[in-house]
Amino acid sequence: MSGGGLVPDELVSQISPSRVAMNGTEGKKPRCTALEGEVGKGVSCSIYHQRSSPCREFDAAWVNGEPNERCDAARAAFGLPPLEPEQQPGLVPIAI
User: Fold this and answer.
1) Which domain, by its residues, includes 42?
2) What Pfam families does the annotation carry (predicted)?
């Protein structure tokens, strides 16, 4: 189903003949099934090294010294304030 991508087939849903979505991300309150932990306290990706291209391409605000309005919007959806430059998150992958 994943078309030879990195994400395990059991974690995706077919949304068109040529596209899939991570399970849990299709609804009004998206939460990827690979996301572990509690938003606002500590989360990690259970398939970090196999994550999808949208996840690979999405940087948290200030990671590269640049703001990210999409990151701010995602945080706001969970009642969290935007990150500030001095709060640059330490993006450390989980060892698999």
Assistant:
1) 1-57
2) CxxCxxCC (PF03692)
